[in-house]
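Researcher: Here's a chain I'd like modeled. Treat it as a single chain, no partners, no ligands.
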Amino acid sequence: MDNLIGINGLRKSWTKHRQLKRPWQAHTYIAIDIETTGLDPINDQILSIAWVPVKPPMILIGEAQYHEFCIGSDVDLQQSPTIHGLTKAQLSSGGDVKKVLKDLEDKLYGCVMVCHHRSLDWSYLRHNSLTKNLHFEPLGVFDTLSYEKNKMSFDNDCQLNNSRLTLSSCRSKYGLPNYTSHHALDDAIACAELFLAQATKIKPFNEKLGFLLKQSR
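Model: Modeled as a single isolated chain. Structure tokens:
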């Protein structure tokens, strides 16, 4: 049994290695945004989630998903009604979070996850109580925030600060319009647009996926 597990692990690793050597445009990406009650993936709550597939150069808006989740009356929404526009009345009839997250688990398999704050979104998918029995296995994770931060760290004339790394600020550098709603679906689409703008700026246009992912760490 141990040998079988080892062989399967090697096979999976080799398959992933081969896929990472393909041009980045040959892959499917899933841009994700998660709205939560706070920054602690273990103790805070997921309020809503959205994702949209990307098959370069297209964003498949027709296949986008948006879900709000039902929460208990004892949950403190903190600043969510102000920031996200999500109230307890609105969330009292939310969807089946387990089914939605299982659908996302299936959707991410073999694709590349795209987000604007990997340490937050990816942590919620791995460590939140709602995802305890799920195993998200994207081919990789591209963080549009980290990509921009890495670019800025090499620019001697650019002072690194958080205000220049917001989704809106990063989009403005590529001439993309400003979305101000802080709605999960709007932010997922905004992140997808930013990803395409960033990826197409990398020289040459046919860079391998592995190289692209390294730029966003």
